[in-house]
Amino acid sequence: MTGTMYGVGLGPGAPDLVTLRSARLIGAAQVIAYPTLAGAPSFARSIVADLIPPGATEIAIEIPMVRERGPAQAAYDAGAARIAEELAQGRDVVTLCEGDPFLYGSFMYLHARLAPRFRVEIVPGVTSMTAASAAARRPLAARDEVFTVLPAPLSDDALTAGIAGADSVAIMKLGRHLPKVRRVLDALGLTDRSIYVERATLGSETVCPLAEAPEKAPYFSMILVLKGNDPWL
Amino acid sequence: MTGTMYGVGLGPGAPDLVTLRSARLIGAAQVIAYPTLAGAPSFARSIVADLIPPGATEIAIEIPMVRERGPAQAAYDAGAARIAEELAQGRDVVTLCEGDPFLYGSFMYLHARLAPRFRVEIVPGVTSMTAASAAARRPLAARDEVFTVLPAPLSDDALTAGIAGADSVAIMKLGRHLPKVRRVLDALGLTDRSIYVERATLGSETVCPLAEAPEKAPYFSMILVLKGNDPWL
């Protein structure tokens, strides 16, 4: 009997936005795996540090911070091989995933490598998009509105088309792409419908109109563009 | 001192996909409010029935099942007035929301009426979209992919444009719109990229290729259209 790999969503960052199911799986885990950017502490692990059993084996998957995909692919290869060893010996492995495992999560790279050979269970988590909407106190989408998620690295044209085609938009992974996204929203006349949200649900959370956003955005920031404006819906 | 209204997301339906924060708020509630379709038990209440304190006051907001918006608006007016009475007397009110409160949730109608006058806190929840993706064991979006949510009541043209502009799509609220959505996906040549998911995370969950989906879909069903297909990402 081989073990099961669990991909458990942890939500946007506040420890109490973890689901009961994820908390239970983590609390009972023999083996825990998580990604970590080379040299830095793991954000995923920090969310649930208080839930990890003291005796658990921990597999830290160090992702190199370079733009080429080769080195990261090699890191996922190595991480998947290490997890596979545990699964092959019949131990379950609980893999920690910021947000939701299947929405822009690095867990997908492990899933692609291991799902063909082992039993995998996914536990969905609260996404940063709805957490940002809650932090901004503004509904994301109602009735028959179209809601689109756009990664900020997309081109000006792709961002423009995506924003134009939706009623509400979440633009993720801002980082160094913030000036480009500002330019696109200005050109569409949507800056005053745009809200900047940084580190939603964390102690350092920032929410403000885009016009008042800082010059530099971290990776864990997003812009919500909310075109609808009927206060009584 | 007036009370606080909490809009707490409950996730897609499995009781253990509630967050720790929502569970704590419900377990400590003096007053609980929830929507219910006239004559039927409340789905939201059923998710967390085991967490509601025995002595809690319950406010059931009966939503009439008619297509005109007037009667539903009147029901939200009355529900909001009843909640306002409790808040005005200094009691907190925990309002139960299927999925996430701010993504196609009926909570928005209460929020629009009460947020101008009372303190409101939103607790985000797991959405049915990522729960469906987990159930289907298929990632929703990776890297720089565009993800769009489309309500099935939209027109053929609006659905076609939304699907064409995204890499992954979740088509929500299928119900009686299933034949139209099938037609649109067939015309786009995307039927074999489409997965039907009904009642994700519940005991009666169904996941199958769209071609094998039943003729009739309930409201709590969706189609995931996943154009990307690189197993190693």
From TrEMBL, chains A, B:
<comment type="similarity">
    <text>Belongs to the precorrin methyltransferase family.</text>
</comment>
<dbReference type="Pfam" id="PF00590">
    <property type="entry name" value="TP_methylase"/>
</dbReference>
<dbReference type="InterPro" id="IPR003043">
    <property type="entry name" value="Uropor_MeTrfase_CS"/>
</dbReference>
<comment type="pathway">
    <text>Cofactor biosynthesis; adenosylcobalamin biosynthesis.</text>
</comment>
<dbReference type="InterPro" id="IPR006364">
    <property type="entry name" value="CobI/CbiL/CobIJ_dom"/>
</dbReference>
<dbReference type="InterPro" id="IPR014777">
    <property type="entry name" value="4pyrrole_Mease_sub1"/>
</dbReference>
<dbReference type="InterPro" id="IPR035996">
    <property type="entry name" value="4pyrrol_Methylase_sf"/>
</dbReference>
<dbReference type="InterPro" id="IPR012382">
    <property type="entry name" value="CobI/CbiL"/>
</dbReference>
<dbReference type="InterPro" id="IPR000878">
    <property type="entry name" value="4pyrrol_Mease"/>
</dbReference>
<feature type="domain" description="Tetrapyrrole methylase">
    <location>
        <begin position="5"/>
        <end position="208"/>
    </location>
</feature>
<keyword id="KW-0808">Transferase</keyword>
<keyword id="KW-0489">Methyltransferase</keyword>
<keyword id="KW-0169">Cobalamin biosynthesis</keyword>
<keyword id="KW-0949">S-adenosyl-L-methionine</keyword>
<dbReference type="GO" id="GO:0009236">
    <property type="term" value="P:cobalamin biosynthetic process"/>
</dbReference>
<dbReference type="GO" id="GO:0032259">
    <property type="term" value="P:methylation"/>
</dbReference>
<protein>
    <submittedName>
        <fullName>Precorrin-2 C(20)-methyltransferase</fullName>
        <ecNumber>2.1.1.130</ecNumber>
    </submittedName>
</protein>
<dbReference type="InterPro" id="IPR014776">
    <property type="entry name" value="4pyrrole_Mease_sub2"/>
</dbReference>
<dbReference type="GO" id="GO:0030788">
    <property type="term" value="F:precorrin-2 C20-methyltransferase activity"/>
</dbReference>
